[in-house]
Amino acid sequence: MKTIRIETTNHAYPVLIGSKIINQLPKLLIQTGISQKTKILIISDENVAPLYLQVVVDQLNKFDAISYVVPAGDVSKAIGEVEKIITYAIQHGLDRSSVILALGGGVIGDLAGFVASIYMRGIRYVQCPTTILAHDSSVGGKVGINHALGKNLIGSFYQPQFVLYDTSFLTTLPTREVRSGLVEVLKHGLIADRQFVDWLEKNADSLLHLDQEAVSYALKQGIKIKADIVMEDEKEQGIRAILNFGHTLGHVIETLSNYQYLHGEAVAIGMFFAAKLAAKLGWLSKEEEAFYQHLLQKFKCKTSIPKEYDTNQMMNIMLRDKKFKNGQIRMVLPIAIGQVKIEQNIDPKFIFETLNELKR
Amino acid sequence: MKTIRIETTNHAYPVLIGSKIINQLPKLLIQTGISQKTKILIISDENVAPLYLQVVVDQLNKFDAISYVVPAGDVSKAIGEVEKIITYAIQHGLDRSSVILALGGGVIGDLAGFVASIYMRGIRYVQCPTTILAHDSSVGGKVGINHALGKNLIGSFYQPQFVLYDTSFLTTLPTREVRSGLVEVLKHGLIADRQFVDWLEKNADSLLHLDQEAVSYALKQGIKIKADIVMEDEKEQGIRAILNFGHTLGHVIETLSNYQYLHGEAVAIGMFFAAKLAAKLGWLSKEEEAFYQHLLQKFKCKTSIPKEYDTNQMMNIMLRDKKFKNGQIRMVLPIAIGQVKIEQNIDPKFIFETLNELKR
Predict the structure, then answer these.
(1) What is the ipTM of this complex?
(2) How many domains would you assign to chain B?
(3) Which of A78, A155, A244, B240 could join B236 in a cystine, given CB atoms 3.0 to 4.6 angstroms apart?
(4) Which parts of chain B register pLDDT below 50?
(5) How many angstroms separate the CA atoms of A20 and A22, rounded?
(6) What pLDDT does residue B328 have?
(7) Which residues are listed as membrane-spanning (chains A, B) (predicted)?
(8) Is B154 close to A322, i.e. CB distance below 8 A?
(9) What is the span of the domain harbouring residue B307?
């Protein structure tokens, strides 16, 4: 079992990674000061619950655990769902000393963490991620839900008590989810660690086939990179913004496709868009741009924008993105493999052109 | 102008009190690092807006200010209202650098502060209280809304950039609101400062007639007491709970009366209930109990519970209160004038009896 310690201003917590470590859950709860008398609300979704809810409930047989299952997918990151869970929690007597356990992927982590952050002005929560993608969202304390007008517009910064990552839960993931999750691992390499990028390129096949050894290493490295950045800038005042690499256009594609594109699938296109734009601005060589395409294709990712998407509409959605300050266009662009920078003043003309060039 | 500085773990901010100081608003914004380019969303209600919204808008004529007016009263502390404000904010281009300005009483402070705490994971907000009651809610960072099953069950701890308290705004308050607000001032005296209680008893009439000098002093003292307690215990792990003095039964009465009782009116009954219970337990003398009644009556407060309220139902609502830990009944009870203590193990029998004795 690998342990990474995350330190934030007010709170430190461990992320534990390993195969078949769910049986450590009761011990970890006790160590965290969560006694068997504590009421625990497990929040999961309709995909994960049939596979792993009973496994977790069995581990908690000495605790006062109840569960709530939401529909799978981004549709549950909604204010209506938050309200339903809170009603359920009140009706079942959750108080300030109670605990929420998120069992699922990024959506469940974001939703359950947000509920924990606002229920009775904040109760404790723990995370048991069940996807590769969740390696990203389970570190950094960003929790939240979507608004009809855009993703993640409602939320908080709120840290879990611990994250327990049982990699054996990943083996039931659909192929597309595996690929989508690995894109965020790629992202972590591409923003901060050239060596890790080279390792990823060499191990693409093992990772796509969920070799447990390779996956464990990749998750650990990805989490480490993210944790280092988050520790430096908890509230996203500066450097942390590089974690949004590929996400500006990524969110646009998710929105316009009505979430038919998975998060990682959309971010892959967003990263390639950033590379192409950087090459156009002269910050990235043509060879490096080509390496981006090669790497993403090795991980079976598309790198083009559906040709029916209106470029002006994409621009408008980007301008509404909360990552833009005072209406200025602000983007994370690569300047080398394993290195990015934040740019405030990009001529919208280049963005427009690059979007058009990517359409196919 | 009086200034009190509030220090919390992550954040320090001033509370400024004085008559006709609203013209200090632009200067204060600039001093806080809020430039004239910043988008400011003023949130107010249908009672306050006709009186003071234009006054504030005029002060902000060099800023990019917009406003949103909600119905007056606790009915606006609802998730539906939060959603509407957020939609309005997105549509009007509020981004992470924008600011929310709460112009109103406690409801507006709680609602606007909560919206600020979850909009794009938290944006800055400032408060311009327009009621006496708001002297309480504007210090301490407790923001939030109600749930159909209970008050303040959804919320955050979130601190404003500053509080600007123009006491000239208080002169348009209805008499019942003045009385209700003064109850929270009384509460601050009764939990922590015997001398202040004696001053309040002597100055009851001036305060009820809104003598500006007396009101300014009372607000300053009340805020100081609250600030000292809040600075000691920001997240209500311990001592801060004494601020809930009178509120356990107070919330029950607000709920059962469907908010026909104003907050302070209900808290006054709650404080007298606590005094009577403390006297029954032998912690308060009969004379002190009588002083409580005398003091509350001097401030024109009722001290009885409507006889039609069902005692069992009141007990059940109290048990669901988030101030109870692990299902235990936990109350703040006076042990002298100007002194209270938190008690964990009160025999429900005494609570039941005292409730019955207060019915009239």
Answers:
(1) 0.84
(2) 2
(3) B240
(4) none
(5) 6
(6) 65
(7) 99-120
(8) no
(9) 175-358
